[in-house]
Amino acid sequence: MDIEIRSKIKSRPIRFYDEGISYLKQLEVKGRLIVIEGPDGSGRSTNIEMITSKLEADGHAVVTTGLKRSELIGPGILEAKRNLSLGDKTLALFYAADFADRLEHNIIPALRAGYVVLADRYIYTLMARSAVRGISKTWSHRLFGFAIKPDLAFYIDVKAEDLFHRIFQKYGFLDYYESGGDIGLADNLYTSFILYQNRMAGEFRQIKRKYGIIGINGEGSVSEVNADLQRRINDYLHSQT
Amino acid sequence: MEAKVVSRHSHAKSRGRLIVVEGIDGSGKSTQVHLLDKWLKSLGLRTFFTEWNSSEMVRGIISKGKRKDLLTPTTFSLLHATDFADRYERNIYPLIRAGYFVLADRYIYTAFARDVVRGCAESWVRKVYAFAVKPDVILYFRVPVEIAINRILEGRSKVKYYEAGMDLNLSNDPYESYRIFQGRIMEQYELMNRKDEFVVIDGTMDIEAQQAASRKMIMPLISGVAATTSGRSSNGYRNTQ
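YS: structure for the whole thing
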Protein backbone atom coordinates (compact mmCIF):
# COMPACT_ATOMS: atom_id res chain seq x y z
CA MET A 1 0.00 0.00 0.00
CA ASP A 2 2.74 2.37 1.10
CA ILE A 3 4.95 1.87 -1.95
CA GLU A 4 1.97 1.68 -4.25
CA ILE A 5 0.59 5.06 -3.24
CA ARG A 6 3.82 6.96 -2.98
CA SER A 7 5.28 5.73 -6.23
CA LYS A 8 2.22 7.05 -8.02
CA ILE A 9 2.70 10.58 -6.72
CA LYS A 10 4.87 12.41 -9.17
CA SER A 11 7.32 15.23 -8.56
CA ARG A 12 6.10 18.61 -9.66
CA PRO A 13 7.54 22.12 -9.58
CA ILE A 14 7.16 24.02 -6.33
CA ARG A 15 4.24 26.48 -6.41
CA PHE A 16 4.63 29.82 -4.67
CA TYR A 17 2.27 32.72 -4.18
CA ASP A 18 3.45 35.81 -6.08
CA GLU A 19 7.24 36.04 -6.65
CA GLY A 20 8.19 33.16 -4.42
CA ILE A 21 11.71 32.48 -3.22
CA SER A 22 13.76 33.22 -6.30
CA TYR A 23 16.67 30.96 -5.34
CA LEU A 24 14.32 27.97 -4.83
CA LYS A 25 12.23 28.32 -7.98
CA GLN A 26 13.73 25.29 -9.71
CA LEU A 27 12.85 22.88 -6.91
CA GLU A 28 10.65 19.87 -7.41
CA VAL A 29 8.48 18.56 -4.60
CA LYS A 30 6.86 15.16 -4.13
CA GLY A 31 4.94 15.57 -0.89
CA ARG A 32 1.67 17.33 -0.14
CA LEU A 33 1.02 20.37 2.01
CA ILE A 34 -2.24 20.31 3.94
CA VAL A 35 -3.13 23.30 6.08
CA ILE A 36 -5.58 23.28 9.00
CA GLU A 37 -6.64 26.75 10.08
CA GLY A 38 -9.05 27.70 12.82
CA PRO A 39 -9.12 29.66 16.06
CA ASP A 40 -7.85 28.30 19.39
CA GLY A 41 -10.49 25.95 20.72
CA SER A 42 -11.68 24.91 17.26
CA GLY A 43 -10.13 21.46 17.66
CA ARG A 44 -7.19 21.97 15.30
CA SER A 45 -4.61 20.06 17.31
CA THR A 46 -6.91 17.13 18.07
CA ASN A 47 -7.84 16.82 14.42
CA ILE A 48 -4.23 17.04 13.32
CA GLU A 49 -3.34 14.17 15.68
CA MET A 50 -6.19 12.04 14.33
CA ILE A 51 -5.39 12.83 10.71
CA THR A 52 -1.72 12.01 11.31
CA SER A 53 -2.60 8.58 12.75
CA LYS A 54 -4.91 7.81 9.86
CA LEU A 55 -2.46 8.91 7.17
CA GLU A 56 0.35 6.93 8.81
CA ALA A 57 -1.87 3.87 9.03
CA ASP A 58 -2.46 4.30 5.30
CA GLY A 59 1.28 4.34 4.69
CA HIS A 60 2.04 8.02 4.31
CA ALA A 61 5.00 9.64 6.03
CA VAL A 62 3.67 12.67 7.91
CA VAL A 63 5.26 15.69 9.58
CA THR A 64 3.38 18.43 11.39
CA THR A 65 4.42 22.04 11.75
CA GLY A 66 2.87 24.96 13.56
CA LEU A 67 3.40 28.66 14.17
CA LYS A 68 5.90 29.74 16.84
CA ARG A 69 7.97 26.61 16.41
CA SER A 70 11.01 27.75 14.54
CA GLU A 71 14.31 27.04 16.23
CA LEU A 72 15.60 30.43 15.19
CA ILE A 73 12.87 32.77 16.29
CA GLY A 74 10.23 30.92 18.28
CA PRO A 75 11.25 31.89 21.83
CA GLY A 76 11.84 35.50 20.76
CA ILE A 77 8.25 35.87 19.69
CA LEU A 78 6.92 34.84 23.06
CA GLU A 79 9.22 37.38 24.66
CA ALA A 80 8.21 40.06 22.20
CA LYS A 81 4.50 39.51 22.77
CA ARG A 82 5.00 40.24 26.43
CA ASN A 83 6.64 43.48 25.43
CA LEU A 84 3.50 45.32 24.42
CA SER A 85 5.31 48.35 23.09
CA LEU A 86 6.03 46.40 19.90
CA GLY A 87 4.46 47.91 16.79
CA ASP A 88 2.02 45.97 14.63
CA LYS A 89 4.22 45.97 11.54
CA THR A 90 7.20 44.90 13.62
CA LEU A 91 5.25 41.97 15.00
CA ALA A 92 3.89 41.08 11.54
CA LEU A 93 7.43 40.97 10.13
CA PHE A 94 8.66 39.00 13.12
CA TYR A 95 6.01 36.34 12.50
CA ALA A 96 6.82 36.36 8.79
CA ALA A 97 10.50 35.74 9.57
CA ASP A 98 9.54 32.88 11.87
CA PHE A 99 7.30 31.41 9.20
CA ALA A 100 10.01 31.75 6.55
CA ASP A 101 12.43 29.87 8.80
CA ARG A 102 10.03 26.96 9.17
CA LEU A 103 9.14 27.04 5.49
CA GLU A 104 12.75 26.73 4.38
CA HIS A 105 14.05 24.47 7.13
CA ASN A 106 11.09 22.14 7.72
CA ILE A 107 8.26 22.38 5.21
CA ILE A 108 10.19 22.50 1.93
CA PRO A 109 12.70 19.74 2.86
CA ALA A 110 9.81 17.49 3.98
CA LEU A 111 7.89 18.13 0.77
CA ARG A 112 10.97 17.35 -1.30
CA ALA A 113 11.36 14.08 0.58
CA GLY A 114 7.76 13.13 -0.18
CA TYR A 115 6.13 13.72 3.20
CA VAL A 116 2.58 14.83 3.78
CA VAL A 117 3.08 18.06 5.72
CA LEU A 118 0.24 18.96 8.07
CA ALA A 119 0.45 22.64 8.96
CA ASP A 120 -1.20 23.66 12.22
CA ARG A 121 -2.06 27.20 11.01
CA TYR A 122 -0.37 28.95 8.12
CA ILE A 123 0.08 32.42 6.64
CA TYR A 124 -3.69 33.02 6.68
CA THR A 125 -3.81 33.35 10.48
CA LEU A 126 -0.91 35.80 10.31
CA MET A 127 -2.70 37.80 7.61
CA ALA A 128 -5.97 37.86 9.56
CA ARG A 129 -4.25 38.97 12.78
CA SER A 130 -2.54 41.80 10.90
CA ALA A 131 -5.74 42.85 9.12
CA VAL A 132 -7.64 43.03 12.42
CA ARG A 133 -4.88 45.36 13.66
CA GLY A 134 -5.25 47.73 10.72
CA ILE A 135 -2.38 46.59 8.52
CA SER A 136 -2.93 46.80 4.76
CA LYS A 137 -4.12 43.48 3.29
CA THR A 138 -2.29 44.24 0.07
CA TRP A 139 0.93 44.62 2.01
CA SER A 140 0.38 41.31 3.87
CA HIS A 141 -0.43 39.50 0.64
CA ARG A 142 2.76 40.78 -0.97
CA LEU A 143 4.83 40.11 2.14
CA PHE A 144 3.85 36.42 1.99
CA GLY A 145 4.55 36.22 -1.73
CA PHE A 146 7.36 33.80 -0.77
CA ALA A 147 4.99 31.22 0.75
CA ILE A 148 4.10 27.91 -0.90
CA LYS A 149 0.53 27.37 -2.05
CA PRO A 150 -0.90 24.48 -0.05
CA ASP A 151 -2.47 21.53 -1.86
CA LEU A 152 -5.41 21.63 0.53
CA ALA A 153 -6.38 24.17 3.16
CA PHE A 154 -9.22 24.00 5.70
CA TYR A 155 -10.68 26.47 8.12
CA ILE A 156 -12.53 25.01 11.10
CA ASP A 157 -15.33 27.41 11.92
CA VAL A 158 -16.69 27.62 15.49
CA LYS A 159 -18.81 30.43 16.95
CA ALA A 160 -16.95 32.79 19.28
CA GLU A 161 -19.25 32.01 22.24
CA ASP A 162 -18.58 28.28 21.89
CA LEU A 163 -14.83 28.89 21.58
CA PHE A 164 -14.92 30.83 24.82
CA HIS A 165 -16.53 27.98 26.75
CA ARG A 166 -14.22 25.37 25.22
CA ILE A 167 -11.08 27.36 26.07
CA PHE A 168 -12.28 28.30 29.52
CA GLN A 169 -13.22 24.74 30.37
CA LYS A 170 -9.87 23.43 29.17
CA TYR A 171 -7.44 26.07 30.48
CA GLY A 172 -9.42 28.19 32.90
CA PHE A 173 -8.20 31.44 31.35
CA LEU A 174 -7.95 33.29 28.04
CA ASP A 175 -4.80 34.12 26.08
CA TYR A 176 -4.36 37.90 26.18
CA TYR A 177 -3.28 38.27 22.54
CA GLU A 178 -5.85 35.78 21.18
CA SER A 179 -8.48 37.80 22.99
CA GLY A 180 -7.35 40.99 21.29
CA GLY A 181 -6.22 42.35 24.66
CA ASP A 182 -3.59 44.46 22.90
CA ILE A 183 -6.19 46.33 20.80
CA GLY A 184 -8.37 47.61 23.60
CA LEU A 185 -11.75 46.47 22.26
CA ALA A 186 -13.59 46.28 25.56
CA ASP A 187 -13.19 46.82 29.30
CA ASN A 188 -13.17 43.07 30.01
CA LEU A 189 -11.48 40.09 28.43
CA TYR A 190 -14.69 38.16 27.71
CA THR A 191 -16.27 40.92 25.60
CA SER A 192 -12.89 41.61 24.03
CA PHE A 193 -12.52 37.90 23.16
CA ILE A 194 -15.94 37.75 21.48
CA LEU A 195 -15.38 40.95 19.50
CA TYR A 196 -11.87 39.90 18.51
CA GLN A 197 -12.86 36.39 17.43
CA ASN A 198 -15.75 37.78 15.40
CA ARG A 199 -13.40 40.16 13.63
CA MET A 200 -10.96 37.33 12.95
CA ALA A 201 -13.81 35.20 11.58
CA GLY A 202 -14.83 38.13 9.35
CA GLU A 203 -11.30 38.37 7.96
CA PHE A 204 -11.25 34.63 7.43
CA ARG A 205 -14.47 34.77 5.39
CA GLN A 206 -12.62 37.01 2.92
CA ILE A 207 -9.39 35.03 3.13
CA LYS A 208 -11.26 31.76 2.44
CA ARG A 209 -12.65 33.17 -0.80
CA LYS A 210 -9.40 34.77 -1.90
CA TYR A 211 -7.16 31.75 -1.24
CA GLY A 212 -9.58 28.91 -1.87
CA ILE A 213 -9.77 27.60 1.67
CA ILE A 214 -12.41 24.99 2.45
CA GLY A 215 -14.70 25.86 5.37
CA ILE A 216 -15.39 23.06 7.87
CA ASN A 217 -18.25 23.26 10.33
CA GLY A 218 -16.51 22.82 13.69
CA GLU A 219 -19.64 22.89 15.86
CA GLY A 220 -20.19 19.12 15.78
CA SER A 221 -18.57 16.41 17.90
CA VAL A 222 -14.88 15.65 17.50
CA SER A 223 -15.60 12.52 15.50
CA GLU A 224 -18.06 14.30 13.20
CA VAL A 225 -15.63 17.13 12.42
CA ASN A 226 -12.80 14.67 11.98
CA ALA A 227 -14.83 12.41 9.66
CA ASP A 228 -15.57 15.44 7.46
CA LEU A 229 -11.86 16.37 7.27
CA GLN A 230 -10.69 12.78 6.71
CA ARG A 231 -13.16 12.25 3.90
CA ARG A 232 -12.01 15.38 2.07
CA ILE A 233 -8.32 14.53 2.53
CA ASN A 234 -8.85 10.94 1.34
CA ASP A 235 -10.78 12.15 -1.70
CA TYR A 236 -7.98 14.53 -2.53
CA LEU A 237 -5.19 11.99 -2.12
CA HIS A 238 -7.04 9.41 -4.20
CA SER A 239 -7.68 11.94 -6.95
CA GLN A 240 -3.91 12.41 -7.12
CA THR A 241 -2.94 8.77 -7.60
CA MET B 1 -3.33 54.47 7.94
CA GLU B 2 -0.96 52.22 6.11
CA ALA B 3 1.03 53.69 3.24
CA LYS B 4 0.79 51.22 0.37
CA VAL B 5 3.64 52.59 -1.69
CA VAL B 6 6.82 54.40 -0.86
CA SER B 7 5.85 58.01 -1.12
CA ARG B 8 7.43 61.28 -0.19
CA HIS B 9 5.74 62.13 3.07
CA SER B 10 3.59 65.21 3.21
CA HIS B 11 5.45 68.07 4.82
CA ALA B 12 2.18 69.52 5.98
CA LYS B 13 1.59 66.48 8.17
CA SER B 14 5.12 65.53 9.07
CA ARG B 15 7.04 68.62 9.84
CA GLY B 16 10.39 67.00 10.41
CA ARG B 17 12.91 65.80 7.88
CA LEU B 18 14.47 62.44 7.08
CA ILE B 19 18.10 62.44 6.02
CA VAL B 20 19.64 59.14 4.95
CA VAL B 21 23.26 58.22 4.33
CA GLU B 22 24.04 55.17 2.23
CA GLY B 23 27.17 53.56 0.83
CA ILE B 24 29.23 50.40 1.12
CA ASP B 25 31.18 49.56 4.29
CA GLY B 26 34.15 51.89 4.54
CA SER B 27 32.59 54.64 2.43
CA GLY B 28 32.91 57.08 5.33
CA LYS B 29 29.18 57.71 5.68
CA SER B 30 29.06 57.15 9.44
CA THR B 31 31.69 59.82 10.05
CA GLN B 32 29.75 62.21 7.84
CA VAL B 33 26.37 61.59 9.45
CA HIS B 34 27.91 62.10 12.89
CA LEU B 35 29.19 65.52 11.80
CA LEU B 36 25.82 66.39 10.29
CA ASP B 37 24.15 65.56 13.58
CA LYS B 38 26.57 67.83 15.49
CA TRP B 39 25.97 70.62 13.02
CA LEU B 40 22.16 70.43 13.10
CA LYS B 41 22.20 70.36 16.90
CA SER B 42 24.47 73.42 16.96
CA LEU B 43 21.80 75.19 14.90
CA GLY B 44 19.32 74.46 17.66
CA LEU B 45 17.42 71.75 15.77
CA ARG B 46 16.04 68.63 17.38
CA THR B 47 17.72 65.57 15.89
CA PHE B 48 17.48 61.83 16.24
CA PHE B 49 20.11 59.41 15.01
CA THR B 50 19.30 55.81 14.10
CA GLU B 51 21.43 53.10 12.58
CA TRP B 52 20.86 49.86 10.72
CA ASN B 53 20.42 46.63 12.67
CA SER B 54 20.32 48.26 16.09
CA SER B 55 16.97 47.27 17.58
CA GLU B 56 17.71 45.53 20.86
CA MET B 57 14.91 43.03 20.45
CA VAL B 58 15.86 41.75 17.02
CA ARG B 59 19.61 41.92 17.34
CA GLY B 60 19.79 38.95 19.70
CA ILE B 61 17.89 36.76 17.28
CA ILE B 62 19.94 37.85 14.30
CA SER B 63 23.20 37.15 16.10
CA LYS B 64 21.95 33.76 17.28
CA GLY B 65 20.99 32.87 13.72
CA LYS B 66 24.36 34.05 12.46
CA ARG B 67 26.24 31.98 15.03
CA LYS B 68 24.40 28.86 14.03
CA ASP B 69 24.45 29.61 10.28
CA LEU B 70 20.67 29.23 10.32
CA LEU B 71 19.85 32.26 8.23
CA THR B 72 18.64 31.94 4.67
CA PRO B 73 18.43 34.98 2.37
CA THR B 74 14.70 35.23 3.10
CA THR B 75 14.96 35.01 6.90
CA PHE B 76 17.98 37.31 6.84
CA SER B 77 15.90 39.82 4.89
CA LEU B 78 12.81 39.52 7.10
CA LEU B 79 14.75 39.82 10.35
CA HIS B 80 16.39 43.00 9.14
CA ALA B 81 12.97 44.24 8.06
CA THR B 82 11.71 43.47 11.59
CA ASP B 83 14.59 45.44 13.05
CA PHE B 84 13.83 48.32 10.71
CA ALA B 85 10.10 48.24 11.45
CA ASP B 86 10.78 48.32 15.18
CA ARG B 87 12.95 51.43 14.84
CA TYR B 88 10.54 52.90 12.31
CA GLU B 89 7.39 52.46 14.40
CA ARG B 90 9.08 53.34 17.67
CA ASN B 91 11.25 56.30 16.65
CA ILE B 92 11.69 57.26 13.01
CA TYR B 93 8.12 57.94 11.96
CA PRO B 94 6.80 59.47 15.21
CA LEU B 95 9.83 61.75 15.42
CA ILE B 96 9.48 62.95 11.84
CA ARG B 97 5.89 63.76 12.68
CA ALA B 98 7.04 65.58 15.78
CA GLY B 99 9.32 67.84 13.77
CA TYR B 100 12.71 66.20 14.28
CA PHE B 101 15.59 65.93 11.87
CA VAL B 102 15.93 62.15 11.73
CA LEU B 103 19.37 61.03 10.58
CA ALA B 104 19.54 57.42 9.40
CA ASP B 105 22.86 55.65 8.94
CA ARG B 106 21.52 53.24 6.27
CA TYR B 107 17.86 52.95 5.36
CA ILE B 108 15.74 50.72 3.12
CA TYR B 109 18.28 51.02 0.27
CA THR B 110 20.75 48.96 2.29
CA ALA B 111 18.16 46.19 2.43
CA PHE B 112 17.46 46.50 -1.29
CA ALA B 113 21.17 46.17 -2.09
CA ARG B 114 22.10 43.38 0.34
CA ASP B 115 18.99 41.25 -0.05
CA VAL B 116 19.11 41.36 -3.84
CA VAL B 117 22.79 40.37 -3.79
CA ARG B 118 21.84 37.47 -1.47
CA GLY B 119 19.27 36.28 -4.00
CA CYS B 120 15.91 37.75 -2.95
CA ALA B 121 13.67 39.16 -5.67
CA GLU B 122 14.05 42.93 -5.76
CA SER B 123 10.34 43.49 -6.33
CA TRP B 124 9.54 41.46 -3.20
CA VAL B 125 12.05 43.30 -1.00
CA ARG B 126 10.69 46.63 -2.15
CA LYS B 127 7.14 45.54 -1.32
CA VAL B 128 8.17 44.42 2.17
CA TYR B 129 9.51 47.92 2.88
CA ALA B 130 6.64 49.72 1.16
CA PHE B 131 5.45 51.24 4.46
CA ALA B 132 8.60 53.35 4.85
CA VAL B 133 8.43 57.05 3.94
CA LYS B 134 10.78 58.30 1.29
CA PRO B 135 13.66 60.36 2.70
CA ASP B 136 13.97 64.09 2.02
CA VAL B 137 17.52 63.48 0.93
CA ILE B 138 19.61 60.36 0.35
CA LEU B 139 23.33 61.06 0.47
CA TYR B 140 25.17 58.28 -1.32
CA PHE B 141 28.86 58.15 -0.47
CA ARG B 142 30.56 56.72 -3.50
CA VAL B 143 33.98 55.19 -3.02
CA PRO B 144 35.83 52.67 -5.22
CA VAL B 145 35.51 49.22 -3.67
CA GLU B 146 39.29 48.78 -3.20
CA ILE B 147 39.60 51.98 -1.18
CA ALA B 148 36.60 51.13 1.01
CA ILE B 149 37.90 47.62 1.66
CA ASN B 150 41.33 48.89 2.63
CA ARG B 151 39.73 51.30 5.09
CA ILE B 152 37.75 48.47 6.68
CA LEU B 153 40.45 45.83 6.75
CA GLU B 154 43.19 48.14 7.98
CA GLY B 155 44.13 46.98 11.44
CA ARG B 156 41.62 44.13 11.48
CA SER B 157 42.58 40.53 11.81
CA LYS B 158 39.45 39.09 10.24
CA VAL B 159 36.10 39.72 8.57
CA LYS B 160 32.97 38.12 9.97
CA TYR B 161 31.14 35.36 8.10
CA TYR B 162 28.01 37.24 6.99
CA GLU B 163 29.82 40.56 6.70
CA ALA B 164 32.08 38.92 4.13
CA GLY B 165 29.08 37.38 2.35
CA MET B 166 30.50 33.91 3.03
CA ASP B 167 26.95 32.52 2.92
CA LEU B 168 26.94 33.24 -0.82
CA ASN B 169 29.82 30.84 -1.56
CA LEU B 170 31.64 33.47 -3.55
CA SER B 171 35.06 32.31 -2.40
CA ASN B 172 36.58 30.18 0.34
CA ASP B 173 38.87 33.04 1.24
CA PRO B 174 36.97 35.51 3.48
CA TYR B 175 38.90 38.51 2.12
CA GLU B 176 38.27 37.55 -1.48
CA SER B 177 34.61 36.86 -0.64
CA TYR B 178 34.35 40.27 1.05
CA ARG B 179 35.78 42.00 -2.04
CA ILE B 180 33.34 40.29 -4.41
CA PHE B 181 30.40 40.85 -2.05
CA GLN B 182 31.12 44.57 -1.59
CA GLY B 183 31.57 44.91 -5.34
CA ARG B 184 28.13 43.43 -5.93
CA ILE B 185 26.53 45.69 -3.33
CA MET B 186 28.20 48.64 -5.02
CA GLU B 187 26.65 47.54 -8.34
CA GLN B 188 23.21 47.56 -6.68
CA TYR B 189 23.81 51.05 -5.28
CA GLU B 190 24.79 52.26 -8.72
CA LEU B 191 21.61 50.80 -10.22
CA MET B 192 19.50 52.47 -7.50
CA ASN B 193 21.33 55.74 -8.02
CA ARG B 194 19.56 55.98 -11.37
CA LYS B 195 16.05 55.49 -10.06
CA ASP B 196 15.95 56.46 -6.40
CA GLU B 197 17.16 60.06 -6.55
CA PHE B 198 20.43 59.64 -4.68
CA VAL B 199 22.67 62.63 -4.14
CA VAL B 200 26.16 61.37 -4.88
CA ILE B 201 28.97 62.55 -2.62
CA ASP B 202 32.50 61.70 -3.70
CA GLY B 203 33.77 59.68 -0.74
CA THR B 204 37.39 59.97 -1.85
CA MET B 205 37.46 63.69 -1.05
CA ASP B 206 38.81 64.70 2.34
CA ILE B 207 36.40 64.62 5.27
CA GLU B 208 35.88 68.40 5.44
CA ALA B 209 35.09 68.67 1.73
CA GLN B 210 32.55 65.81 1.96
CA GLN B 211 30.93 67.44 4.97
CA ALA B 212 30.67 70.79 3.19
CA ALA B 213 29.08 69.11 0.17
CA SER B 214 26.64 67.25 2.43
CA ARG B 215 25.62 70.36 4.38
CA LYS B 216 24.98 72.20 1.14
CA MET B 217 22.39 69.56 0.23
CA ILE B 218 20.70 69.75 3.62
CA MET B 219 20.61 73.53 3.90
CA PRO B 220 17.40 73.88 1.84
CA LEU B 221 15.63 71.47 4.25
CA ILE B 222 16.29 73.61 7.29
CA SER B 223 13.96 76.49 6.52
CA GLY B 224 10.53 75.76 7.89
CA VAL B 225 11.68 73.44 10.64
CA ALA B 226 11.51 75.23 13.97
CA ALA B 227 14.64 75.37 16.07
CA THR B 228 14.42 74.79 19.81
CA THR B 229 14.32 78.16 21.57
CA SER B 230 17.40 77.60 23.69
CA GLY B 231 19.36 75.88 20.97
CA ARG B 232 20.34 73.13 23.37
CA SER B 233 21.59 69.94 21.86
CA SER B 234 19.83 67.50 24.17
CA ASN B 235 16.74 66.04 22.55
CA GLY B 236 15.61 64.07 25.56
CA TYR B 237 15.45 60.77 23.69
CA ARG B 238 18.86 59.43 23.11
CA ASN B 239 22.40 60.57 23.14
CA THR B 240 23.74 60.10 19.64
CA GLN B 241 27.28 59.35 20.83
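YS: worth flagging: The beta strands of chain B are 17-22, 47-51, 101-105, 137-142, 199-202.
IM: good catch. Also Chain B has one domain: 17-222.
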